[in-house]
Structure formats: C-alpha cells, structure tokens
Design brief:
Layout: H1 2-9, H2 16-23, H3 36-41, E1 48-56, E2 59-66, E3 69-74, E4 82-85, E5 91-96, E6 100-107, E7 110-118, H4 119-135, H5 151-163, H6 169-182
Antiparallel strand pairs: 1-2, 2-3, 3-4, 5-6, 6-7
Helix pairs in contact: 5-6
C-alpha cells in the first residue's frame, strides 16, 4: 500500500511536509534517496515535523519526528529501527559536545538515545519533540515488574547516562539509592 502511494507521486517526488522538514538539513543530507523509505512508511494522516541526522544503536541514519511518533531509519534500510509513539515519552533531555550531541527520551523505565546529532539541531529537535509530546495523547507504558528488573543492570544503564552527561551526579546518586533500597 505504501509503495502505491509513492508510485502515484511519481519518481523523485516527496511529500511536501517531508521535503520541507528535510530541506533544513541542506548539504548535510548527502543522499536525498534516504528519504524514500520515510515517505513510504509515514501514514497519509501523519505530518512530518522535523528531520535530523544521527546515530541510534550504533548505526547512522535519519531521525524523523511526526505529529504521532518518532522514527529512526538506518541508512539504506526500508523500515525503521525505532518506531516510538509520542504518548509513551515522559521526558526529553539533551547533552552536547563540541560539534554533536544527544537526545535522550525517557520511555517508562527505559531511555532511548539518539546521538551524534549536529549541535545546531539538538535544541530545536528537543523543543519540537517536547511540543509534539504535549500535543499527543498519553499512552500507557508497560512497566517491567519490579521483581523481574535487575537492579545491577539498571545501575549500569544509569552509570552510562551519567557518563554521557544525560544525568547529573546528584540525579545518578538519587536513582542509585532507589535501586539499592529495592535490594
């Protein structure tokens, strides 16, 4: 069905909202063909709000924010490796270095991070995600059973977040204490 939508548009043509969101990337988007899978995957009633380049789970690609969800497409992959409905996101944090940064999304007890985003895109992207999250209906997050969650694994994740600058030392200490209190 998505393929038929693309054929109806003609080769080389993109949805207007996707083309406008991607246009702000300018020459950083070296291969406009990377947008084709996005155009085929996004539903007709969704509106593309923001497109950024970044890395998710060790692979580079496109982060696409619509008014319904956040998608990440690895380069040359037709389906997203991340398809996250906005109503599941409870908070958005950022960190940045000299030229790139990271956006971290709190989803229940998990954190979904997209890194190596151009520094100039970090705050506009985070702002756009926050606005879209506020406008999206909240969705229940399936929480892991506390008895099944491994507190040591959670501490490793927290340490990583602290080391990457997502959490402050004080936030790390507070969360660590909560985990220790469960033991």
């Amino acid at each position: 069905m998505a393929r038929k939508r693309d054929e109806a548009r003609g080769p080389g043509e993109l949805r207007a909202d996707l083309a406008a969101a991607a246009a702000r990337l300018g020459p950083r988007l070296r291969d406009p063909g990377e947008l084709v899978p996005v155009a085929a995957y996004v539903e007709p009633d969704e509106t593309v709000r923001f497109v950024a380049l970044g890395t998710h789970q060790q692979g580079g690609g496109l982060l696409v924010l619509t008014d319904v969800r956040l998608l990440f497409f690895l380069r040359r992959v037709l389906t997203p490796t991340l398809d996250l409905r906005l109503g599941r996101i409870s908070s958005v944090t950022t960190s940045s270095g000299f030229s790139t940064g990271e956006v971290a999304l709190q989803v229940g007890e998990d954190v979904v991070a997209v890194s190596r985003i151009a520094r100039v895109d970090i705050e506009p992207l985070a702002h756009a995600i926050r606005q879209a999250v506020v406008a999206a209906p909240a969705e229940p997050v399936t929480a892991k059973a506390e008895s099944m969650a491994d507190p040591f694994e959670a501490m490793e994740k927290l340490a990583h977040l602290r080391d990457t600058g997502v959490l402050t030392e004080a936030e790390f200490a507070a969360k660590k204490q909560e985990l220790l209190d469960r033991l």
